[in-house]
Amino acid sequence: HADVAMFDAKESGKNQLRFYHDEQGSQRYERFSLVNDLRRALEKDEFRIFYQPQIDTRTGNVMGVEALLRWQHSEAGMISPAKFIPLAEEQGLIVPIGEWVLRESCRMGKIWHDQGMDFRIGVNIAGQQIMHESLMGTVQTALDESGIRPHLLDLEVTENFLLKQPEITIPKLHKFREMGLSLSMDDFGTGFSSLSYLKKLPINTLKIDQSFVRDIGSDPEGEAIVKAIIVLAKSLGLEALAEGVETSEQLSYLRTHGCHLIQGYYFSRPLPAEELPDFVMNQAVEISFE
Ligand code: C2E
Ligand code: MG
Ligand code: MG
Ligand code: MG
């Protein structure tokens, strides 16, 4: 009875979501214009943000959460950001959507901080947002209206986009650091940046991409990349954070090699805002130390 939503751009020539579902044995077939629906999703209040805890395994505390966008489509159900974010970028919708994510994440962050939870909030920033002139003002507005302290906001950027037009992006990153924000390089290792750029980028954290983390225990070459990124981070004075950690084997490998910041299903899936405080309060005692 499970609904299956498939994104099918090639066949139809435009972006459409084909939606199949089984009703009392008969198969119905519907098409939605994903683009039109995406345009209206903000005003229809169909976006939700889930928050995935990031654990500092040295203390057992939640040191951060990553804000991950979800689209609750009225008919197709929950649509993954892997499907609609590229479309939003293509349609120029990522700027207003990204603005909403920033403001909403900061608003929630302030509520949690006022309750005594001092973790930082990581927000994904798409390439187009970085290139857009409005981003600086949007971030400032999100900080001002929420009252969240800037050092508790972490912007996650990816290397490919930064280096497409480094003369525009790198000065902006410096500006964000001057404002007190922290910066993470997302999906590190999957892009094409030259390592010499890394020392010019004012970032705080390298997020080791989950494709390498998945290799731990099965692919020695992937493991070698994980180790190399941890060493690289350390020698550049950056933090390494591993994402997509699912098993205790991956966890102990990472800790043994000096990566203590962990995000992944092993600790928690992304949680709706209302479930986060319980997790944060209980997490510290539940970690087992060697
Ligand atoms: P990302 O920023 O690299 O986020 C990490 C993704 O890995 C998330 O997928 C998260 O749910 C998933 N993940 C976390 N732990 C595990 C694990 O242990 N195992 C597995 N298999 N997956 C894990 P999600 O939420 O589907 O988001 C996918 C991508 O969509 C994100 O990748 C990010 O690039 C993009 N995205 C999500 N929200 C936003 C947003 O607000 N703005 C922008 N620009 N992009 C976003
Ligand atoms: Mg991310
Ligand atoms: Mg990532
Ligand atoms: Mg990713």
Automatic annotation (TrEMBL):
Q: Which GO terms describe its biological process?
A: cellular response to nitric oxide
Record's keyword terms, sorted? c-di-GMP, Membrane, Transmembrane, Transmembrane helix
Q: Which domain of life is it from?
A: Bacteria
| Domain (EAL): residue spans on this chain | 31-284
MF terms (GO), sorted A to Z: cyclic-guanylate-specific phosphodiesterase activity
Protein name, UniProt field: cyclic-guanylate-specific phosphodiesterase
State the species of origin: Neptuniibacter caesariensis
Classification from the root reads: Bacteria, Pseudomonadati, Pseudomonadota, Gammaproteobacteria, Oceanospirillales
Identify the segment of the full-length protein shown. Answer: 659 to 948 of 948
